[in-house]
Design brief:
Blueprint (H helix, E strand, L loop, with lengths): L2 H25 L12 H18 L4 E6 L4 E6 L7 H15 L7 H4 L2 H9 L10 E6 L2 E9 L3 H11 L4
Antiparallel strand pairs: 1-2, 1-4, 3-4
Helix pairs in contact: 2-6
């Protein structure tokens, strides 16, 4: 066998070994790291707390919990809450999470031309109305919770009652 044939055989051998072991090595990672946002369990507890606050106030709400990107974690609509309140609750929460501020503080944003483009690019319609608050952990926004179906203040009061679950 000539030197060029040996070199070629060696290169092919290295390539085959690399291709054969690459996928195996790529799969040998540790357990997946949980996302930093609210957990499903925390979200369900928060939804229950918001429902208790709504019952005490005599109102019917829909409430949503989202992660820091605005992706939905949990959503609940109380019996008797209007059908569209689920979308509004999610939109308030998504906006609050994305900007790390209460949704009611973002009303001026709605009149800017950039908001129309931002709203179009979002996965859900965004609503800059009072009723959603960011969920904070160690000074970072990890998500938000929003409610809809009553007055804006009652919506926010239900969220405030639920935030201790995070």
């Amino acid at each position: 066998m000539s030197n060029s044939q040996r070199t070629f055989s060696a290169v092919v051998g290295v390539m085959v070994a690399t291709l054969a072991t690459g996928p195996v090595a790529a799969q040998q990672r540790g357990a997946p790291v949980p996302p930093p946002g609210p957990t499903m369990e925390q979200s369900f507890s928060a939804l229950a707390a918001a429902r208790q606050a709504a019952d005490a106030a005599g109102v019917k709400l829909s409430c949503a919990v989202v992660d820091s990107r605005g992706d939905l974690i949990a959503l609940a609509r109380m019996d008797g809450a209007r059908f569209y309140t689920t979308d509004v609750a999610r939109g308030k929460a998504a906006l609050s999470a994305m900007f790390g501020q209460p949704s009611g503080n973002l009303g001026n944003l709605a009149s800017s031309p950039a908001f129309a483009n931002f709203n179009e690019a979002a996965q859900t319609p965004l609503y800059p109305f009072q009723g959603a608050l960011p969920i904070m952990r160690d000074g970072e926004t990890i998500g938000a919770m929003g409610c809809s179906g009553a007055s804006s203040q009652q919506d926010e009061d239900a969220v405030t009652a639920a935030l201790s679950n995070f």
